[in-house]
Every structure is written in structure tokens, then in C-alpha cells.
Amino acid sequence: MRFERSHTRKAVALAVAGSLVLLASACGGDDGSKGDTGGAAAGALEGRGPITFATGKDTSGFLPKQVAAWNADHPTEKVEVKELPENANDQRQQMVQNAQNQSDAFSVLNMDVVWTSEFAANKWILQLPEDKFPDLDKLVPATVETAKYRDKLYAVPITSDGGLLYYRKDLLDQAGAKVPTTWDEMLAACLAVQSKVPAAKGMGCYAGQFEKYEGLTVNFSEAVNSAGGVIVDKDGKPNVDTPEALAGLEELTKGFQSGAIPKAAITYKEEEGRRAFQEGKLLFHRNWPYVYAKASATDGSSKIVGKFGVAALPGKTGPGVSSLGGHDYAISAFAKNKATAVDFINFMASEARQKANIQATSQAPTWASLYDDPALTSQFPYLAPLKASILGAQPRPRVVKYNDVTTAIQEAAYSALSNKTPPKQALTDLQTKLSSLITQ
Ligand code: GLC
After folding, report:
1. pLDDT digits over 40-79, tens only?
2. Which atom number of ligand 1 is nearest to the Cα of residue 326?
3. Left if phi > 0, otherwise alpha if psi is -120 to 50, otherwise beta: which for 274?
């Protein structure tokens, strides 16, 4: 496998591997399941016929083409897309409701990587026999881990996600500033651009996703990890009340206080931030790879075509650490026509479909060799930083009570960013909360 961890990321990778194992085992006593395998058994996965595919809003416009390609070849097993809201929290809400009603309305679920443990432990999704998914060993191993609960497979990773720093190359060049690798360098570059380039007057320095939802958990975790802190340590225990975590959170709170992060960013989810960057309102922007295609669109929707570059997220003393994002396809425990669902998942996981998807949408594939595909690497310069971002990425806590954990993180981070709670106090409170939620 060419998708190996780079040397500089090794320490992080090892720490991550350690915390994964321990967190997974921590779930044993902490997840409310009854001491059995914790999920719905694989069963026969039988039945053919029409199915549905529940997925967050398709902002790329490409999903209908993928589904049409499937439907053309499977006239009696057509897939109907059930489009859910744009933000991760609302998508989860609808899927949970559907599962609690034991409804068969959703057959295949497009799940955020952070939901696997909760959905598997509650038996809302089926355990999947690995031998029915022949391409699994072609996928980036860390992405396959996100689809497992207690070492068993519950989904198949179709897209990955790693945070990237988008920057205005044209303006940095005009100011003679270099691409930053640290927060301090980023802020210095911003000052240089603002003082030397008249066209940059009034632009914000930086924004990520700071609205109170899953994206804030991502941005907070990245700030903490990029400053050398952790949310949970390698033993799976919360350890967020530390000087390192404080340094990370303070990059964000100070950014808001100084105005380097524009006030409006407290309302940004992915799309609001992307639009601000594309409209030329931001010099630096943290977002996922899908933004590359959108910001490069030549239909007039982007004002920055050819003017931006992509780099690693900034850290305290060098490049930062991304949160591992992405989406895995699972089969609802209440679905009809499960054999069709398996085939549709394999179709979407295939190299051909993943390649078509990255070419149209710039979303991160899970198929490892695509990151080294010469046709793609020459067309998409963001693939090298993306590969590094995903390889060095930290998973969010893999716990059944993830929704409570992420809600606690969002409340603490939001309270600090909106100046209601001093950062140190927010971390002390968060540590107390997480300690009561993650009890092993
Ligand atoms: C992206 C990521 C997902 C993350 C979400 C947060 O969709 O793929 O993992 O939770 O953004 O907004």
C-alpha cells in the first residue's frame, strides 16, 4: 500500500492508534449495550428491489449522476435519493428518528464517520460481513477504522475528509508573504497583506466553522491538537484541562477578540465560510476538500478562480493536525431489499465511481491509490496536502455516547468563542463534563 504514514506524522499516528484501541474497549462498559456483540447481526442481507439512499444535502450536484448510472443498469433495483439537511446534526437527528420508529423509509444511510458506534450499539444499522465488500482492503486503513465498532464492520467508507488551509495566493504574493505553517505566521502574513495590498482592505484574516454544531467540534479539536493538546488521552481518558489545550483554544478566542477572525464567523458552518472565501472576504479559510472544486468553478460563482492555494492547517510550532472527517455508507436495520443495498454500496465504493466523484466534486476518496494517480495529482494540486492531512488526522472520540460528548465540546467551545466563559474555565468545565460521560 502506497498510502503510508509520513515520517513526521508517525508520533501522532501512534498516539492515535493507541487511543483508538483504548477508546473502543472503553465502550465496553460505557455504552448501554447488553454485553452481546453490540450491534444488529449481519443476517442474510437478502432481498432485491427498489431502495432509498438517505444523505445530507448534495451541494456538489454530482450525486444524481452517480445514482443515474446505477439506475440505468438496475431498472428493477432503482435507488431513490432522500435528501436530508445540509448540516451534520440535522442529518443525524432525522436518521435517529427514522431508526427509533423502526421505519423502512431509509435503506442505505450516508453516515458521518463519528456516528458509527452509536448507531451500531443501538442496532440501528446492520453488522456487515467483510467478505461481501471485496474492495475494503484497497481503502485507506484509517477510513475503514471509522466504519468499525468493537472490531466489526458496520459500514463502508465512501468519502474521507481532511481539513485544509485555503489561502489567497495572489495577495500573499503581492505582499511578498510566504505560505504560513503556524498560527503566528498566518497572523503575520495577514498583517503584511493588509498593510501592503490596498485591495485587501477590510478582508478578514481567517475563518473556519464556529457555529454551535459538529463543525465546531472539528475546529475546536483541530485547534487543541495543533497546539499539542488532546481531548482524550491515549488511555481514552478526557484530558482537556491542560496548558496545551488552552493554548489551542486561545488561538481562536484571541482571533475573535482581535478581529483577525471576523465576528460573522461565529455563525459559519461549511457553506457560509466557503461563500465568504469565494466572495473574496477572507484571506485564509479552513475547510474540507470539496471547496476546491466550488472555488475553482468558472461559471461566475467564484471570484477567486486561479487566485487561491491549499496548504496544511497551521499549528503552534509547525503544521497542525486535522480531525478525521468523512462519510460511510451503512444499511439500516429496518431496510428492505438488503442484497440490493450491498450491491449499491459496492458500486459507490468502486474505484471508477470514486474517481468520477473526485473529478467532479474534489471530495476526498477513500480508495488509497487515487491519491497517487498521476492524472489526478497533476489536475488537483490539493491532493498532496490532503493526503498528508488525512494521514496525520486525529479521529474524534469513538464512543457510543458521542452525541453527548460532542454537545459538551460544542457548548464549551461556543461559550469561550462568544466571550461568555473564559477559555480556562470552559476547559475546566468541559473536563468535568467529559469525565462524567466517558467513565472508563
Ligand atoms: C464534514 C465531515 C464530517 C464532519 C462534518 C462537520 O461533513 O466529513 O466528518 O463531522 O463535516 O461539519
Report:
1. 665 689 999 999 999 999 999 999 999 999 999 999 999 9
2. 8
3. alpha
